[in-house]
Amino acid sequence: MVEHDDILSDAEREALAGVTAPMAPKPVVLVVDDNKVNSEALSLYLKSRGIECMQADGAQEAMFKLHYEPRISLMITDLRMQPEDGLELIRQIRETERAALSIIVVSGDTDVKEAVDVMHLGVVDFLLKPVDLGKLLQLVKKELKLE
Question: How many CA atoms lie within 13 Å of 5's alpha carbon, on the beta-carbon side?
């Protein structure tokens, strides 16, 4: 009996896989900050670099979007937000089905203890404001596997 695996060459198999495989959905970065100007500026910067973004104006909206938008692959969040801070948001996420989400923290003011607490929650990095946009872009591309 003839093996059916031998019908196509490797090149034909590869070409066919490209035609029949569904396109992977483009990953989305969720930018969370209760300061609309900051989140808008960061989102516009990332979008200008070809990275799809959405925004949340705080922890509650971020949790809602994480629940309903499976394409969110990375979250960039501020720590100082009202009524719920970014540290509590990260803790909540780590207790959900999205626990493995890549998270980058940006903060204008923090202390060493808070920075250590954040890093213990498994974030990708902690950047101080004003954010080094080059470094942030490099981190985002690495996490989204765009490099």
Answer: 1
